[in-house]
Amino acid sequence: MDRTRFEITSKQLIFIIVGAQVATAFLSLPRIAAAEAGHHAWLAVIIGAVFPLAAILFTVALLNRFQDADFVNVSHQLFGKFLGTLMVLIFVVYVVIFQSIVIRIFSEITCVFMLPTTPTCMVSLACTLSVVYAVSKGAKVIGRLNEFLFYILIVDILMIVAISIGKGSYLNLLPLGEIDINGLMQGSMKMAYAYAGSEVLLITYAMVQHRHEVLKASLIALGITLLIYLLVVIAGLMVFGHIGVQFITWPVITLLKIPYSFALGRLEIVFLLLWVGLGVKPVMNLGMTASYAAVRTFNLDISRFYAWIALAIGAGIYVLSLLPKNLLQVFVLADYAGYTFLAVSLGYPLLYLLVSAVRRPRSS
Amino acid sequence: MAPFFNRLLGRRQKPVYKPLPKEQQEKLSPSLGSKKKILDPYIQKNRDVIYREITIKADPGRRAAVVYLEGRIDKQVLYEEILKSLMLESDAASWQQSAADQLIDRISQTSLTIGEIKKVNLVQDMIHALFDGLTLVILDGMPEVLAINVIGGVQRTPEEPPVERTLRGSREGFIEDLSSNISMIRRRLRDPNLVIEKTIVGRRTRTEVAVVYIEDIADPEIVRNVKDKINQIDVDGISAIGFIEQFIDDNHYSPFPQFKSSERPDRVVMELLEGRVAIMAEGTPWVLIVPTLFVSFLQASEDYYDRPMLTTVNRMARYLAFIMAVSLPALYISLLSFQPELIPYELFVILAQARSEVPFPVLVEVLIQEIIIQLVVETGLRLPTSIGQTVGVVAGIVLGQAAISANIASPAIIMVITITTISTFSLPNYSMVLATRLIRILFVLATAIFGLFGFSLGWFILLTHLISLESMGVPYFSPFGPVRFRDLKDAMLKGFIYWFKYRPQSIPVLDQKRQGERNG
Amino acid sequence: MKLRGMRIVFILVMGSMLCGCWDTIDLEEFDICLVAGYDTPPAGETGKIAVTALLADVGEKSEKIATHSARTVGGTRERRAYSEARHYNLAQLQVMLIGKDFAQQDIKGVIDINLREPEVKSSVNVALVDGRVEELLQFMVEKNPRKTSQILINLLQTLPDRAFVPSTSLHELSTAFYTPGMAVAVPVLQVAQNQQGVEVTGSALFVNDRIVAQLDREETRALVLLSGRKTRGWLPFSLYKDGKLVDEGTAFVDNKREVEVSRQGDLIVFDIKVQMKGRLVEHMVAEHSSTLHDSQHLKEMEQAIARDLQLQMQDFIKFMQEELQVDAINITPYALAKWRREITPQLEQGFIEDVLINVEVNVILQNTGELG
Questions:
Q1: Cβ proximity of B79 and B46 under 8 Å
Q2: Does some domain include residue A363?
Q3: pLDDT digits over C126-160, tens only?
Q4: Mind listing the pLDDT tens digit for each residue in C91-101?
Q5: In angstroms, what separates the C-alpha of B336 from chain C's closest C-alpha?
Q6: Does ipTM come in above 0.90?
Q7: Is B20 left (phi over 0), alpha (psi -120 to 50) or beta?
Q8: Contacting residues of C for B349, CB less than 8 Å apart
Q9: Are C179 and A258 an interchain contact pair (Cβ–Cβ within 8 Å)?
Q10: Nearest chain A Cα to C157, which residue?
Q11: What is the CATH number of the domain that holds A76?
Q12: Where are the domains of chain C?
């Protein structure tokens, strides 16, 4: 395996970013958004996008300053060998912790909806193994996979939109005025966490073949995510209302149980058939970036050690995912993980920008 | 998974290369006797090697001999154009004019009325030439031997290929003879840029292998890659194109065929025009087409000969067939024994009633039926057509009925397995049929563990695998992953012929343009 | 060698998973519950709830019922576990029936357990039984041992396509919980007067977790038309002129509703426009001379239908505002959409009784069939 396996097109970058963002989080999104922002939850989704937007702009601004935009190289250049490696490792550890929560939530949902008596650890193991398999194939394959799975996701989204039109009422979204600023702001903060995953850009930036397209691609990606979230939140509000939606843990799945469908029995089947492709994408994408960063920072032979590192990171994710005792604890942890996402995705580029401004004058 | 572990462990295959025996690379000595001595062991052991000494009219003093393999030559040509020419008609004047070292050229220029003659001066080449079927003319006092191509012998006449039948396509299929096959392609594709390069594979079988491509369309990178890989093959012998396929494919641990083979010259020509490379081998009526995409296993030649709107429907049906062939039994298991809530009520009642008498769990039921069907199919393949059909009918109908009335299988599972089998065989390519069989079993096992989740997991892994495959460096699952919208009109759909103004994007080519703008 | 080791580990892992098959079920080991009924416990039983399940016996191709009582719905499952031979499976639950006595107490537990259970779909049909569910089901199973569930499912699902009765799903019933000041209508079943089968007698209104009113068929029709649920059905009518019966007949119509909300000072005014479109199915002219080619006569018929319905609706609105004091016709969202902040606090204390609701009915008979 050579470096060409880690070259992606800007189109694939779009889908990698979308894939890293849109996963299990969007299943509970209407509930979380409506809890604070009421019937203006959809507005919170839009405002929440400001944080990842800033993160993307900072990241691009930072990496544009360097000839070799490889995150590991940049870290080493700015912080020296030891500190730079430490910074990369912190990022890797962040990915492992964050994705262990994603895997756990994914497995819990799987167990609730499909496999009530199967041990969660077995479900996590199966997912982690298949994710490691995908990660071991390299960034190019992951990019293609994300693109393919994105089109499949559209099927789900269309289904949700159709149900919300059929079973929901637009009245639940009105009036547009009467904004509760306080709640909206709190809701927007929570929504910002839902965009976790945009930090893949730190690593994937250097993999893109034409770097001048990166900014445009990542903004498009953010736009797509925003649109998906918007549709989902509006669907949740339309069908359940902003009060009703708060009783339901995963409104998006519950939504699918509502219509009586003549031929399929229940529409969840469509959703559950596509379930793995929907839920594990962030683990896959961020796992890939973490493995790549780890291999690069220790300067290992990528063809020999990348898959090993991927396996090790997968093992780390798996073990950590077993630790929380129950789902409520996972949700609490997910909230903390949301903070760390903001810290990493905004903090990293800002800190780097600061150091690079201090350490050397701007070069072309 | 195996290439993954391979990569984990950083394994590489060591090249094995065994040089030929040293003495055979020596040059021939001029005397006839010494050459005869080299050939003697072969002549004594093989009754089909004919060694005949002759006297040449132009130079009666010089000893000469003709050596050939009895069954491989066209005797009529040998007698008329070689023996008669040399023994009765050769012109002494022209022989004596030339210098000693040019004499051999002189002979072939003046005395042999044959098209293809080459000079051989190595021991090894002489022996190979003899066993490749050439006729040797050996002259005393000359270090070179003439190897003359008068290959003939019995050949099968071209017939309609039994596997890739079409209604409106040509009825001609490749045969075992390489040069006839090449002529079939040349006849259909008269482009001077059509290149046919030959090489020899197999130390002992010495099979002639031709690499065919259109020089100003095919990507030179792919052509080079193909030639390199074929030249690297070091094996004692190959007897079918399948050997080459296995030697040159990129991912050995994959159930999916990564190159397509075809028996139809019209099909091969179409593929060449799309910038692909064809590999042909002596002795096989199958031609390997490189690189091949997943979608081309679901395309049939017929698609291009009929009205696009109709063939689009056929093609969609084939995609459905692939999906069903892979996943229908798995879906049955996951719905019936994991998620019965997802079955529509009316269907549920029917399925549950059918299941209620059967003593086995659904998984065992599926596996039993699957194995039986595999055996029926396998039997049908090996037996002559008429008996095979009878066995199929007997096994299918009688066994199925008996199983239902004995309550060993439910009617539903018989239907599921039958539909699956029919779907499997509606795929146009047999390699793909085999692949779906294996994957189907894996899917059944995955759903037996995790139900619908296992089903979803299975498709995820299958997709990852398909997307990660490459055929000669070209992404195998294109145009679906990576998605290439331009090519989708010949993948999911079969568009109108004038839509294809450009060659497929998925395969790198030198010349993109295919049609004039004004078509359509 | 290392490679082989990895492979063996992988095969072992997969194999050990295969030994698991944790969730596989064999359908024949299950009692598959098709209809669940909720009653107060019969005399002599302790607890608060009796659950009657209509179970499919797939082997015998028949259906049977089983009743268990406990303090909660889950508690009845515990009881069942001890006394029944097979597992209890809710995967194909299609209909929930609520006994009238039980509905007057508290159905919160029923809603909670069924919404919480991923196996149960939210599109399960809900109906109220006038009497005891157990008796109704017992009656039906005796009449029709194989088709009870099918009859109930068809009855409840197709009802709105032929009568002005709502078909209520679990999802709709649950909205009555978290939406203050809102009532949900549920069809009411009972054993038919002639003891031949079951019949729908009208509907019942649920507010929060209990029933507040039972409506007869005419009231139900008014409610359905006012709430804008998509239904269609037959409307018999009589046309009087100068106090004399001129014509009598039936129309088959479907309905549509539009709501406009406005304010006159503090008073909120709802203008409900109900439009019904359909065809004339029959009419018997009392006076021999007139046919329908006389368009005036058709118009008079339309007006007669509209007038009757309008009166019924106005009665219902009065009943709703004065006695029920909840919004049974789903108009509050229109007001909320305009003045959400102002109205939300009022909903708990009663909002609907202080508004003005105007109704206008418009009937269009598009054709008259083959006869003029």
A1: no
A2: no
A3: 999 998 999 999 999 998 888 888 889 989 989 99
A4: 889 999 999 99
A5: 8
A6: yes
A7: beta
A8: 56, 58
A9: no
A10: A260
A11: 1.20.1740.10
A12: 27-215, 230-372
